[in-house]
Amino acid sequence: MENAKIAKKLVAVMNDCSYVSKNGVNSFHHYKYATAEDVLQKVNESLTKNKLATVVQPSIATGDDPEADTNTDENNVGDKPVAKTVTSRKATAKQPVPKETVAVCCGCGTTISEKVLNYSVSKFGQPLCMDCQKQASYAA
Hints:
Layout: H1 2-16, E1 24-26, E2 31-33, H2 36-49, H3 89-92, E3 103-104, E4 111-112, H4 114-124, H5 130-139
Helix pairs in contact: 1-2
């Protein structure tokens, strides 16, 4: 039940953040883009509004856990940003989806079944409940 509540809040965040103003300008290629600062501000405002928070869990390579330290490169310290992204080999492999996964409609936040999820993603490209699928069909 708690997963469904969080999922509804995350859908609200996704809806709030569906558009970010493009305040950055690439003068060489002549296009505008959303800066990282703009994206972060938009996401943080929506998370706060929906009473959600992100938690960063830093890890330090100690040598005690070879699997956790797999992608740590101590010789590369000077030429990379401090917040270098490290992805473990396990995380890149396709993991089976846990049975307890809750699917929610992107339109209204209602919990949807796996069958409805699979159909809506194949037809509309996003998880939609049957009512939102009807609205999307009429709009098309």
